[in-house]
Design a protein that fits this description.
Largest sheet: 4 strands, antiparallel
Strand content: 5-15%
Helix content: 55-70%
Strand order of the largest sheet: 2-3-1-4
Distance between the termini: 72 Å
Radius of gyration: 25 Å
Number of helices: 14
């Protein structure tokens, strides 16, 4: 069972209330102190609790104190304890919800990975170059390296979280960051293709212009795994997700095929990229809802419910359109001489 340290600063009059809430939510340790300096008296409450009680406790604290008072809760991960912590009783909680990090921890994590700053643009630039070289030279190891350093997954997870929380500011920021990253990647792909003196038949490149129905299942499973790794604190699993449902290689392939004068290949790569983006967002939103990641207050929950319904409907509609596109791309091309007596005339 993982632990979290929570430190709350608030007006001194709330010290007893915070201690009582900590005991109510079975804090492992709790300590309260009041300030002695002149001015408005403050208190600090330090407690250690199990990870799956953090969300309930902070919700109860906000309800008890309200928005009118100046207070703050800081959550820290516990790497280890001496002596070793042993739960006093076995928790009988739904397995799918147990161990979830708080919404504030998840929000901080995904917000940090969705900022459109110089670090994001430089990582996108470098990973696009690495991916292009790997695709054109048919190097699997180089392509995997580009997948790992590419930052494109972060904005998609941030958009899904923004939808679950009804945070429109986060949604718009994530959408803008995602669009900027993909646009930069495609542009670099076009430039590299124009400068490339070799061919464009490498299997690694051609494979990114083809997509099947199995790609949908892969992207859905990977998106769900990405969110589960976030809410349970297993961020190292994100590396595997980046490789499984990579957004960088198909985006680079779009640019390369456009630069090579192959619109059919660019269309196939665009469909693959669209499948990955749609399925990651759809799966991520589903897992966030299933894990109970939602706004704290009931009026915020009511507002976010409408946002969730609209976005679910939008992603499902886009997924159906992509399924139709995959079916259309897989239709066999009939030679003109076999298409009928009027085919040759129509072709002229």
């Amino acid at each position: 069972m993982t632990l979290r340290v929570i430190e709350i600063t608030a007006p001194a009059g709330y010290a007893d209330t915070l201690v009582a809430l900590a005991e109510q939510y079975e804090a492992v340790e709790v300590f309260a102190a009041r300030s002695a300096h002149t001015g408005e008296p403050r208190c600090i409450v330090h407690l250690v609790c199990e990870t799956n009680r953090v969300q309930e406790f902070t919700d109860a604290v906000q309800k008890a104190i309200g928005k009118g008072e100046l207070w703050r809760a800081v959550t820290l991960a516990v790497e280890g304890t001496v002596p070793k912590y042993e739960p006093k009783k076995i928790e009988h909680r739904p397995a799918f919800r147990a161990g979830a990090a708080s919404r504030e921890e998840i929000h901080e994590e995904v917000t940090r990975n969705s900022k459109l700053d110089s670090t994001y643009l430089v990582l996108t630039f470098l990973s696009a170059i690495v991916a292009a070289i790997g695709l054109l030279n048919n190097s699997v190891a180089v392509v995997i390296g580009a997948m790992v350093i590419a930052p494109l997954l972060g904005p998609n997870l941030a958009f899904a979280l923004g939808t679950a929380l009804g945070d429109r500011q986060l949604m718009f920021r994530a959408a803008g960051t995602n669009a900027a990253g993909i646009a930069l990647t495609i542009l670099l792909g076009v430039v590299i293709a124009l400068l490339w003196s070799g061919g464009f038949k490498a299997p690694e490149l051609v494979s990114r212009t083809e997509v099947g129905y199995d790609g949908i299942a892969l992207a859905l499973a990977s998106g769900a795994a990405a969110v589960l790794s976030l809410v349970t604190g297993l961020s190292s699993a994100l590396v595997g997700v980046m490789v499984a449902v990579a957004l960088m290689p198909p985006a680079v392939a779009i640019g390369i095929m456009l630069g090579a004068g192959n619109p059919e290949g660019a269309l196939g790569a665009a469909v693959l990229l669209g499948v990955n983006i749609v399925c990651v967002n759809l799966a991520a939103q589903t897992v966030f809802v299933a894990k109970g990641i939602r706004p704290r207050t009931w009026w915020e929950q009511k507002a976010s419910a409408a946002s969730l319904r609209i976005n679910f409907a939008m992603w499902l509609a886009l997924l159906m359109a992509l399924v139709a596109a995959i079916y259309w791309l897989k239709l066999p091309v009939v030679p003109p001489q076999l298409a009928g007596p009027g085919a040759e005339i129509a072709g002229e």
